Amino acid sequence: MLMHNDALVIENVCKHFNGIRAVNNLSARLPSGCIYGFLGPNGAGKTTTIRMIMNIIQPDSGSITIFGNSSIEKAKNNIGYMPEERGLYRKMTVRSIISYIGAIKNMKRTELSQAVPHWLGELGLQDWADKKVEDLSRGMQQKLQFVATVINDPTLLILDEPFSGLDPINLDLLKGIMLKMRENGKTVVFSTHMMEHAEKLCDFILLINKGEKVIDGPLDQIRANFTSNVVSIELEGDTGFIGKLPIVKDTKKVGKRLEITLDEKTDHQELLHNLIGKSRIRAFEVKSPSLHEIFIQMVGEKK
User: Is the distance from CB of 92 to CB of 103 less than 8 angstroms?
Assistant: First the structure.
């Protein structure tokens, strides 16, 4: 398929349900070959937006294009979609359900004979290949749902809350696969209300609150635009004097380090000046604001 600079373009999209605004004038451009996060609290409009992308529901106004196509029908064979509501045939075996879904997606038998064992191995499901879906744990069913989503090697992957129900080991496994897919030129879009997942994965993010865009763009650029008044330091000797400095609002011990929250008007260099000569400095790091902190700050400004 011919690749476009933008895998997905959302322009001025609105959606209401029974007079209640779910999505309001939402716009975003999602570049090809990246991991893009739809972030926000539960009820922010993330799932509604994804369902409009997938043409499950229609927007009241605005437009959505996928790889330059305004109709998802022309692009659907290149899209892998994992909905928030998981759905698998419980009486079928793991191997048979993957093969069945692959056949629906127009895969040939020769393709399936290679893809099925490959993905079973990638997700650690090979020992369960001949077990029924109903015999799997929730986490295993989640991994199986992911296999069914990617079995036909889609160019664009859209995952709605993909990490729910996964333990830390399988969470890291899925994240690693998503990163590998990005390295292979795929575009991965996922929604989550857990900001820490996005911080470790995303190249671009879209923060949504109450159906409206709070901020979007490259993650590194967004974080660079927000300053932090928290400094992490490690000193040799007594640190008790730090909390008494007038420029310091709060201190918190984190392992061997001390996290210092400065007055908003204080430059970090002023703290460094106060430390020099009083203690040996082993580490001095201005902490980047977390996505959670950025979100709270942006939402607070909009109130």
Answer: no
